[in-house]
Amino acid sequence: MPRHPETTITPNAILAGARRRLPSPLRDGQRMSRAELADAVNAALDRTYPGQNVTAYYVDFRWVGKLERGEHRWPSEARRTALRQVLDAATDADLGLYSPRRTDAQHVSGNAVHPRPEGWDETVHLLRGQWHLLVQNDKMFGPEYALIGVTKQLTSIENLLGNVPQAFRPTLLRLAAQYAESAAWLNQSLNDHVAGIHWTRTALTWARQIADPTMTAWGIYRSSQQRLASGDSAQAVEQAEAALLYDQQLPAPMRAALRVQHAHSLAAEGEHREAMRLLDEAHRWAADRHAGKPEGEHASYCTSGYIEAHRGACLQLAQRPHEALTVLDQALPAIPPLHRQDFASALLSKAAAHASANQPDLAATTAHAALPIARQAGARRILQQLAQLGAAVGEHRQLPDVRAFLDDLTETT
Q1: Domain count, the chain
Q2: DSSP state of 53
Q3: Last residue within a domain, chosen from 75, 101, 127
Q4: pLDDT per residue as tens digits for the range 37-64
Q5: Which residue range(s) make up the domain with 387?
Q6: Residue 52 DSSP class
Q7: Among 101, 116, 120, 317, which residue has the least CB neighbours within 10 Å?
C-alpha cells in the first residue's frame, strides 16, 4: 500500500519557489529571504486582524524553513491566510499546503489566541521561538522594548494555562516560568525591583509545579541577584547555595553563572578566598568554552570575560582596587559587543576601583565612557549606579574630567 503523502517528509518546492520569485524588500537585486518572508507574514497578520493580539502567531525564519523542508504542511488558518496574501496565492494548494486528515489547528477570535486540541504543539513551538527573539530584542533594543513583548506573551500564556490539555501542561508551564524569569530580569534592568521580585516568585511557582530543575535553579539564582542588589548579602549567599543544589542537572553556562553569583555574594560577606576559588572553577563551564546552543539560552552571557569582570568586582569588594583594575582591563575586551549591559557594568566596576584608589579623574573618565553605553542599552539600573558614583566623586568637581562626567550625568538624570 502506498504511503500517504503526509507521512513522508518531502521539501515543499512550491512554497520555496514562491518565496524566491519575490524580490527582497531590503536588498536590491536579491530574492526575498526566509527572515524577510517571516517579517512580511507577521505584518500581514497585523493587517488581517486589526485590534487583536496576534503576537502568539508571529513567525520567524526557522518556521519558514520547516515549511520549505516539508516538516510542516498545515499551519494555522491565520498563518495560511497571511502566507497567501504575501505570496499572492489564491489557495493553500497553490503553496503546496494541504491537510487531508485534519481540520484547522487554530483560529483567531476576539483578542486572544484560542488553540484547538490539534494545535498545541504549534503554539508551544511558536512561543518558544518568540522567547528567543525577545531575548535578542533586549540586546538590540533594550529591556523596555523587550518587556512589551514579554508582557504580552505572559498574558497569552496565562490565558492558555486555563484550558491547556494535561499532556501539554508541563511544557507550557516551563515556558511560562521562562517568560516570567525574563520579565524579572528586564524589570531588574529597568530598576523596578518590586516588579522584578514579583516575576521571580511567579517563575519559581510555575517551575516548582512541574519540578523543573533548570527553571527552579534559574529562578533562585535571580532571587540571589536581587538580594545582593538590595544589600542583603547573607541571603544572597543562601539563595546561591540553594540554586547550586541543582548543579549536576544544569547546562554548562548556567553552572558557571551560579558560581559567579555565589562568588560575588561571598565576596560581599568578606569570604574573599572562597570567592576567588569559585571564579576559577566557573571558567570550566564558561559559555565561550563550549560549543553549544546559540545566543539566547540561559547564561549564554557567562563568558570568560564576564567571569573575569566579576573577579574585578570581587577584588574591589576585598579593597584591592589596583588588582581589580588589572583584571578589569583584561576582561573588558573579552566581553562580546552585543552584551552592552555587561560591558557597561564592567566599566562601572573599573570606575569604582579608580575611585577607591583615590583616582577621581580616572574614575570619572571611565564612568563617562560607560554612560552612553548604559543609555543605549536602556539599563536604568546601571544608570542609577553611575549616578551614585557621580555623587562619590562630586567633591572633585574642579577636575575637568569629573566636571564633564557630572554635567553629562545631569543631562541623563
Answers
A1: 2
A2: -
A3: 101
A4: 988 998 888 888 777 777 777 888 888 8
A5: 326-413
A6: S
A7: 101
